[in-house]
């Protein structure tokens, strides 16, 4: 378990194909299709964050899917939702062709 000074961020948080109950934590407006760990790493760096990468970790809802492995840890400088919105904005800019226009 990471220490309390870090925020855990999983790619599933930005997946447009998932509902909030299935683990998505940003609105569909900011979600993208099939996010992977490398996309999240790139977006977090572009957002001015310094991610710690843990490629071997698996989200509890996708533990059985080898392609869904990995998470990042970033320093807690505000709320988790504010950090996710910052990363989601970078994701949307870089991967806007994949971004959905649906609200959710």
From TrEMBL:
Record's keyword terms, sorted: Cytoplasm, Ribonucleoprotein, RNA-binding, Signal recognition particle
UniProt xrefs under InterPro entries: Signal_recog_particle_SRP19, SRP19-like_sf, SRP19_arc-type
Oligomeric form and interacting partners: Part of the signal recognition particle protein translocation system, which is composed of SRP and FtsY. Archaeal SRP consists of a 7S RNA molecule of 300 nucleotides and two protein subunits: SRP54 and SRP19.
GO cellular component annotations of the record: signal recognition particle
PANTHER family referenced in this protein's UniProt entry, alphabetically: SIGNAL RECOGNITION PARTICLE 19 KD PROTEIN, SIGNAL RECOGNITION PARTICLE 19 KDA PROTEIN
HAMAP family on file: SRP19 (MF_00305)
Name the record gives this protein: Signal recognition particle 19 kDa protein
Tree of life domain: Archaea
Entries under Gene3D superfamilies matching the protein: Signal recognition particle, SRP19-like subunit (3.30.56.30)
A molecular function GO annotation: 7S RNA binding
Pfam families reported for this sequence: SRP19
Function summary: Involved in targeting and insertion of nascent membrane proteins into the cytoplasmic membrane. Binds directly to 7S RNA and mediates binding of the 54 kDa subunit of the SRP.
Major localization class: cytoplasm
Organism: Methanothrix soehngenii (Methanosaeta concilii)
Subcellular location field: Cytoplasm
SUPFAM superfamilies: SRP19
Family: Belongs to the SRP19 family.
GO BP term, pick one: SRP-dependent cotranslational protein targeting to membrane, signal sequence recognition
UniProt KW Lipid metabolism keyword: no
Cytoplasm in keyword set: yes
